[in-house]
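Q: Given only this backbone (161 positions), what sequence would you predict?
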């Protein structure tokens, strides 16, 4: 399986002066999502295209460049749980766990226009002894366009290690 639509490449880091790091704001991550959606150019190795819902969080670090301060960035497809609803399916395909929102979705605003949303999530590991599962220390922020999107939604996920 290919790790990404891009060749995995760390060369982009060599372009940056020493001390510079990839630490995008919420608005900037939304701009990358827009670039991705319009087939714009993004330097190889910064983001990884991957169905993150196929893997437990600890498995994801083998697929992606770990950025400054323990962040990993993915483009992934999110599927709506119900065709006409706003809830997303965030269960792992294996049934080993799921991503649960920890706070309400927040609008990302630029020039008084909503350009996207951000949802903070925590990974819950399934447990046979507990129907709700066990909360882990894995955290993720999910960025996507406003809810008037089609059934399959491209999103940016920022995973914290």
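A: Predicted residues:
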């Amino acid at each position: 399986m290919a790790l990404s639509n891009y060749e995995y490449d760390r060369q982009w880091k060599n372009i940056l002066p020493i001390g510079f790091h990839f630490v995008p704001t919420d608005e900037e991550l939304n701009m990358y999502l827009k670039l991705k959606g319009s087939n714009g150019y993004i330097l190889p190795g910064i983001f990884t295209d991957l169905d993150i819902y196929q893997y437990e969080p600890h498995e994801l670090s083998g697929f992606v460049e770990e950025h400054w301060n323990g962040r990993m960035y993915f483009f992934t497809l999110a599927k709506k749980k119900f065709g006409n609803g706003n809830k997303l399916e965030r269960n792992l395909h294996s049934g080993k766990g799921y991503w649960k929102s920890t706070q309400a979705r927040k609008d990302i605003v630029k020039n008084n226009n909503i350009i996207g949303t951000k949802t903070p999530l925590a990974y819950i590991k399934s447990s046979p002894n507990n129907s709700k599962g066990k909360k882990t220390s894995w955290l993720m922020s999910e960025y996507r366009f406003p809810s008037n999107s089609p059934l399959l939604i491209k999103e940016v996920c920022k995973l914290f290690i």
